[in-house]
Amino acid sequence: MAERHTKEFPRLTLGTLTAAGVGLALGLRALVRPRLSFRDKTVLITGGSRGLGLILARDFLKEGARVVICGREETTLQRARTELEHLGGEVLAVPCDVTEPVQVEAMVSAVHERFGAVDVLVNNAGIIQTGPLESMTIEDFEEAIATHLWAPLYTTLAVLPEMKRRSEGRIVNISSIGGKVSVPHLVPYSASKFALVGLSDGMRAELAQDGIKVTTVCPGLMRTGSPRNATFKGDHEKEYAWFYVSDSLPGLSINAERAAKKIIEACRRGDAEVLVGLPAKLGAVARALAPNLTASLLAYVNRQLPQDSHPERFTGSQSETPLTRSWLTELSRRAAQRNNETEVPIH
Questions:
Q1: At 12, is the secondary structure helix, strand, or coil?
Q2: Does this model's pTM top 0.85?
Q3: pLDDT tens-place string over residues 229-257
Q4: 68: which of 41, 98, 274, 294 is 20 to 30 A away, CA to CA?
Q5: In sequence order, what DSSP letters do the residues of 250-274 get, joined into one string?
Q6: Which one of 154, 189, 240, 244 is the catalytic residue?
Q7: Are the CB atoms for 115 and 92 separated by under 8 Å?
Q8: Cβ proximity of 45 and 93 under 8 Å
Q9: In angstroms, rounded to a whole number, what is the distance separating the alpha carbons of residues 191 and 149?
Q10: How would CATH label the architecture of 36-338?
């Protein structure tokens, strides 16, 4: 018995060492993924005139990139361009509604004329519509899908030929934890962000063979200052109040500058997905591991929210109350000042 044990021992040890070696090699390979330098790269950021897009533009400029921003509102866009130019570096601001494919093609042509091919595309443009499902119209859903699904598809298709020709490129799709967990009173937003997650994941799988890395970003609430430019239905003052306060409180929301740095690092590494903020990570895990419990919790949350289903829409800036002007929203108000979210024309 002892002799048989001696003969088998080396074979088992070799198998164990081989498996361990393969595992270690794969682990090391993951750790040493090539990190992209953004110096002298052309970065196109949709919705780059304010909020998270503007913060990302600042950070990419600091990395030495040539930055292109686009937006629908020319006054807001030009304010952003002026600020970015003062930081130094090369900046191009292009008026563009990214839900219109003709305008997207014209924008990408303008980028080619000024800087050449796009190296990094950040699909950041977004809208937020808040209110009970009964207050939402088909047009609300169409607007959300146009902004969060069709627009990223248009911009991606416009830059893809050059990326494929060079066998390199980065595409970053800014979705949301709302694209992992559908939040009550944000159904058009969540439905369209779910669609973007599916588009982004599929893109990554198919474009990997062309040397193009696609990163899906799912942040939780970020203090960008954007709630004042979101739209609200039903009891719009109460809807704005719960959303704005939640967006402002540490713990529930994350500092947008910190979020932007995490997004840029994920792009640099070419990560498949990044969940930004602890609430986003907990929400995604809870939805995956305990879907029934998560659904029950969300149903409870819904019952605590305003139930008025009036269809008229108001912006956040039209829905201010003493509560939304209180200390509870101080951090978000400061963010709005920093990130060009004030004095945005009302559509």
A1: helix
A2: yes
A3: 999 999 999 999 999 999 999 989 999 99
A4: 274
A5: BTTEEEHHHHHHHHHHHHHHT-SEE
A6: 189
A7: yes
A8: no
A9: 10
A10: 3-Layer(aba) Sandwich (3.40)
